[in-house]
Amino acid sequence: MHIYFCGSIRGGRDDVALYQKIVKKCQQYGTVLTEHVSHGELTEKGEDASLEGDKAIHDRDKAIHDRDMKWLEMSDVIVAEVTQPSLGVGYELGRAVDMRKKIFCLFRPSSGRVLSAMIRGAEDGSQFHVRDYSEEEVERILEEFFSSLAKN
Ligand SMILES: O=c1[nH]c(=O)n([C@H]2C[C@H](O)[C@@H](COP(=O)(O)O)O2)cc1CO
């Protein structure tokens, strides 16, 4: 199974330790195409952050976008940690809906944030799921999600 993990990068890296936990768990069920999102050394500047010059920056961002859209197409399931707001994650989720992918969003109410209505309101009971959770239960929740996939 190909899994696409979405997590904030330029939106802020506060939850990176949690992304690592999620990616590690997902790797028990398949290949995580976007493993780099969980890397501790990746900063909020994003990949190849040392590039300079408008053209180099444009080319880098285009390469990231095009690679990620290819991975999104290839993926069987999308797992997104949506607590830290991120334009990129919101974009990926919108594109994934259009591709009719199975989507599982994880949100932590303990953050004090209120999840965007464009994510919470996209829940449809079959392809798009939003799950409120706390950090201690993340592994169990992922186990439940992947075993529910196996049954469908
Ligand atoms: O360097 C990057 N590499 C990359 O794969 N992304 C993708 C994967 C993440 O799920 C998402 C994060 O978006 P943002 O950077 O807007 O928070 O976008 C985003 C960036 C930087 O925007």
Automatic annotation (TrEMBL):
Query: Which top-rank group of organisms is this from?
Result: Eukaryota
Q: Which UniProt keywords apply?
A: Cytoplasm, Glycosidase, Hydrolase, Nucleotide metabolism, Nucleus, Phosphoprotein
Q: Where does substrate bind?
A: Y4, F5, C6, G7, S8, I9, R10, Y19, E92, S116, A117, M118
Compartment list: Cytoplasm; Nucleus
Report which reactions are catalysed by this protein. a purine 2'-deoxyribonucleoside 5'-phosphate + H2O = a purine nucleobase + 2-deoxy-D-ribose 5-phosphate; 5-hydroxymethyl-dUMP + H2O = 5-hydroxymethyluracil + 2-deoxy-D-ribose 5-phosphate; a pyrimidine 2'-deoxyribonucleoside 5'-phosphate + H2O = a pyrimidine nucleobase + 2-deoxy-D-ribose 5-phosphate
Q: Respond yes or no to whether keyword Nucleus is given for this record.
A: yes
What's the protein name? 2'-deoxynucleoside 5'-phosphate N-hydrolase 1
Look up and give the organism this protein is from.
Answer: Clupea harengus (Atlantic herring)
